[in-house]
Write a structure and sequence with these properties.
The protein is of the alpha+beta class and about 180 residues long. It has helices spanning about 35-45, 120-130, 145-150, 155-165, 170-180; strands spanning about 1-10, 20, 75-85, 95-105, 110-115, 115-120. It has a domain at about 1-120: Rossmann fold (3-Layer(aba) Sandwich), CATH 3.40.50. It has a six-stranded antiparallel sheet. A hairpin with a 4-residue loop joins strand 4 and strand 5. Bound molecules: adenosine-5'-triphosphate and magnesium ion. Adenosine-5'-triphosphate binds near residues 35, 38, 66 and 67. It comes from Wansuia hejianensis.
Length: about 180
């Protein structure tokens, strides 16, 4: 499974609908300071359910919506869709392509979709658990995270290995069952 494409519309500096395609090889995104490179990784974490606006480098969730420029009015909503190639079936769904969408309006609440079907954030979390792709997965390693991983307590570091080994899903199901 690999990330094929990211579609961003109205998210942070991406006012116009923008498509960023990836392939199986290495892709690097380069550009001047402030051109929106980090906004792309923010978009990927956001669509996977990031709820902490601090992690998205903003003050309130509304700050992810394009806030306008001298020449352009602010937009009313932000939407991000990421497309995974799932021909190897790593994502437990019977589809060769899996698309995850999140949309937010200025009024607040986020909407989530899996292959255009409305769903809960919980469904997305469960789908990606143990794939390494979740918002806290090891597939996105931000500035600072490397230090954190190296200096973490052993138990925290263990979480990363457990996700890679594919057992987090069972642990979290067990914890959920114990809470009931
Ligand atoms: P650097 O090389 O410094 O890390 P970068 O390419 O990673 O830069 P980003 O941090 O992705 O740059 O983008 C910052 C830009 O995004 C700033 O110009 C900021 O004004 C713009 N920006 C952030 N949020 C919004 C928003 N809601 N509406 C419009 N523009 C936004
Ligand atoms: Mg940056």
């Amino acid at each position: 499974m690999y990330l094929k494409k990211v579609e961003i519309q109205g998210f942070k500096s991406f006012a116009d609908k923008t498509e960023i395609k990836f392939n199986n090889d290495i892709t690097a995104i380069v550009g001047p300071n402030g051109s929106g490179k980090s906004n792309i990784t923010d978009a990927i974490r956001w669509v996977l359910g990031e709820q902490s606006i601090k992690n998205l480098r903003g003050g309130k969730m509304e700050d992810v919506i394009f806030s306008g420029t001298d020449k352009r009015r602010p937009l009313g909503f932000a939407e991000v869709t990421i497309f995974f190639d799932n021909q190897d079936g790593d994502i437990p769904m019977d589809y060769n392509e899996v698309a995850i969408t999140r949309r937010i309006f200025r009024s607040g609440e986020s909407e989530y979709y899996i292959n255009k079907n409305s769903c809960r954030l919980k469904d997305i979390r469960e789908l990606f658990m143990d794939t390494g792709i979740g918002k806290d997965g090891y597939s996105i390693i931000g500035q600072g995270r490397i230090d954190e991983i190296l200096s973490n307590k052993p138990e925290d570091r263990r979480n990363i290995f457990e996700e890679a080994a594919g057992i987090i899903k069972y642990k979290s199901k067990k914890e959920e069952a114990e809470r009931k």
